[in-house]
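PROTEIN DESIGN WORKSHEET
SECTION A - STRUCTURE
LENGTH: 207
TOKENS:
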């Protein structure tokens, strides 16, 4: 547990230094106009109806930009998102990030039968299997960490969260930290923590 916290603290300091003084020309209004093609899957305000598509409302803007860049480069594989990201410029990505991050995520509801088990993993991890608490990186309220490009999780569809955890665990989605963490979670733990995340609430900080 302490190892993960120390790694996060060190990386946060590096990210903060790298981002210091960087001018932002993100334009949320322009992003709204550009998001028309995103609405079919993610919803006009970033609150997708289908659980197979992630909610983008309230997501950290720089995280959205980073993931769009990964889809465009092919580093992150997805049959729908790769062709969608391919024509986007960096400015387009920044504008889209600004728009979706300015929206308010609509939280779902956690399965009451899974709250206790899911909350235990999210807030305390699993010492026996070496799984750190999710809140160490994603925050107690699931708001994520913008400077560290750690995504907000609060209110995200449980089915989508499970799919991503499975992808990290089987190596089809790459992350230096999440690969190992997800691989140590049991299927039951994935379902429980995903349901817990779906019911999390947080108030995003507006610029």
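SECTION B - SEQUENCE
RESIDUE ASSIGNMENT:
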């Amino acid at each position: 547990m302490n190892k993960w916290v120390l790694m996060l603290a060190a990386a946060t300091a590096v990210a903060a230094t790298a981002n210091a003084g960087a001018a932002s020309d993100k334009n949320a209004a322009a992003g709204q106009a550009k998001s028309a093609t995103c609405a079919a899957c993610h919803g006009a305000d970033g609150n997708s109806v289908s659980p197979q598509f992630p909610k983008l409302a309230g997501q950290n803007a720089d995280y959205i930009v980073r993931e769009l860049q990964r889809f465009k480069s092919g580093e992150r594989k997805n049959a729908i998102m790769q062709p969608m990201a391919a024509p986007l410029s960096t400015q387009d990505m920044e504008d889209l990030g600004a728009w979706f991050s300015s929206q308010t995520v609509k939280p779902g509801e956690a399965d009451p039968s899974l709250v206790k088990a899911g909350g235990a993993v999210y807030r305390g991890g699993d010492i026996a299997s070496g799984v750190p608490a999710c809140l160490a990186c994603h925050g107690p309220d699931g708001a994520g960490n913008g400077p560290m490009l750690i995504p907000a999780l609060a209110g995200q569809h449980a089915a989508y969260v499970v799919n991503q955890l499975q992808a990290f665990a089987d190596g089809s989605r790459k992350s230096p930290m999440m690969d190992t963490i997800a691989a140590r979670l049991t299927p039951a733990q994935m379902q429980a923590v995903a349901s817990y995340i779906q019911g999390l609430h947080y108030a995003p900080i507006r610029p």
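SECTION C - NOTES
The chain has two domains: 29-101, 107-198.
The CA atoms of residues 71 and 80 lie 10 Å apart.
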